[in-house]
Every structure is written in structure tokens, then in C-alpha cells.
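call fold target=Lysophosphatidylserine lipase ABHD12
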Amino acid sequence: MRKRTEPVTLEHERCAASGSSSSGSAAAALDADCRLKQNLRLAGKGPAEPRCAADAGMKRALGRRKSLWFRLRKILLCVLGLYVAIPFLIKLCPGIQAKLIFLNFVRVPYFIDLKKPQDQGLNHTCNYYLQPEEDVTIGVWHTVPAIWWKDAQGKDQMWYEDALASSHPIILYLHGNAGTRGGDHRVELYKVLSSLGYHVVTFDYRGWGDSVGTPSERGMTYDALHVFDWIKARSGDNPVYIWGHSLGTGVATNLVRRLCERETPPDALILESPFTNIREEAKSHPFSIYRYFPGFDWFFLDPITSSGIKFANDENVKHISCSLLILHAEDDPVVPFQLGRKLYNIAAPSRSFRDFKVQFIPFHSDLGYRHKYIYKSPELPRILR
């Protein structure tokens, strides 16, 4: 029995050993296969990761572009909405249009003391305050001829008022919109006129500078009339000329028409950079971005008229009987040159000027005088003579 079992046992042991050997080799093969697959997976991850990062970066860039475009579109829609809303706002509130015409809230240069004209280099100038109406006070500057520069030092208002009775002619200067009587180009003109032997009297309309009151065409004209009468009451027989610039030309023709109607005309009227009427000026103004807007007249020009603002130079010159001089630069970017020429063409044949001289002096665009630098012209003394 033992003999028979021993071979069986040995066979079983051999089978077990062989099985153990085969299973070990199989496990080793399986382990090697797993490592190979893992290495392949790791090898495959290398190029995949940069592609994923690039895709993510592209998505972020596209997201930023979409966000930027969304913001830009939002801004454009807001601007467009505002552009469309402004005409309706002006139509409903005509007072806005009046403020845009007067621009009296724009005070340039800033931080100057209008009570001290000497700070602007006008050491022969006195500051006054006059009262055309109750609750209205206007600030006035009076510059004497430059030859009196030394005599004027330290003098009071009474001395300046008495000086108006001297033999020197007087210019009442009516400035345009925006700024004050202390504006840079205005001060330079006072100096030029003073050097030519003129008294120069200028003022800020009610609502401008340190003058008290609410701006209106009627009020501005009345202020000018009050100052003119104040001058005439002190100047005796001395010549008085009225000089209007830009919007001030509208005040000037209003004033002179009224003076002619009451038979107290000035000795001459000088219009620098004039327009025909405020409607044509508003339509021709380079800053009028709505001029091609449908219904421009109804939205923008009719509210001006309804606010009582006309400044009808073209109508006024038909009722003026004194000498007229028009000065205009061809390169004027604010009041187009053609409006000044048109006003001259209306005035020249008018019957009211049949006994008076009417002149139009153009200044070539190469001179660069534009809207407010005609005072630089070396020809000005000859022209005024």
C-alpha cells in the first residue's frame, strides 16, 4: 500500500509545484502587463494635458471677448438712447436750450476776481456795479485811454466817470456767450482799443460773471440800454460806438434799433463775427450734431423761439440808421463766415442806411483769426479810422 501511495504523493507534489510555478509566472506576466498599460496611460497623458490647457485658455479668451462686446454694446445702446432722448428732453424743457445758447454758467477763466481788473493787466480800469432794474445788478469795467495810464493809478470811480467827458471817443463793448468780461481775448481787445485812444466800457449781462439776475434776450438788451444811457449822461458830445461780438451782435442790433427808434442813435455800430438770426446760427453751428436729425426745427429751433430768443440781426439792420462796420474771419469755426456776408447783403441795400456808410471787412483764413482773434490784426487801427 505504501509503495502505491508514494508515487501518487510525489505526483501530486510535482503537480502542485508545477501549478505553483505556472501561477507565479502568470501573475508575473499579468503584473508586467498592468505596468505596461499604466506606462502607456501615463505616456498618453503628456500631450493631452497641454491640449486641455489650450482649450481652457481659448474658452477664457472667448469669454472675455464676449464680455467686452457685451459691455461695448451696452455703452453704444446707452449713447444711442441718450442721443434719441435729448431732442425730446429739449422739446419738453425749452429752458435747456436757452442755457445752451447763453452758456452763462461757463465762467472762463476760472478763479479770477472780477472786482480786480488789474489782475488781468488792466491797471487803468475801474470796476463798477450798476442796477438796471430792481433785483438786477451788473458788473461793469471802464478802461480809460492808455495815455492816461499813470494818471489813473489809485483813482476812484468818480474820477473815471468824469473822464468820460474828455475828448476821447467811447466804445461800449457787448461780449458773446460764455465766459465773463474778464475773458482773455476780451481783455486783449480792451488793451488794443485803449492803446488807440478809446474809452472802453464793458459789462456782464445779468446772470453772467458776478452780475445778478436771470438771463433773457429782453433782459440783456435792457442791461445794454441802461449802460448806454449811463455813458451818455456823462460823456457829453463825445462819440459813442457800440461793438458787439458773436452773440453780443444780437444784443447790439437790438439796442441800436431801439436807440434809432427813439432818435438817439450811436455814432456807429461795429459787428464782429455776426450772424443773421439765432435760428440760422443754431442750424449752422459746427457743434450742432442734430442738424440732420429728422424734425430738427421742431425739436430744437422752435423751443428757442418759444423761449423768446430771436436775436434777429437780419430784421434789425433794416431799422438802423447809423454807420455800420462788419468784421468777420473766413475761418470762423463758430459763426460761419457766410452768415456775416449774408447780413451785409441784407443791410447794404436797406433804405435805413442810405445816408450812412456800410462796410464789410473779411479777414483771410491764412491769418488764423478764427472766431475771436481779429484784435490781432495790424489793420484794425486803419479800419476803425
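return ok
Residues 1-10, 19-24 have pLDDT under 50 and may be disordered. The two ends are 160 Å apart (CA to CA).
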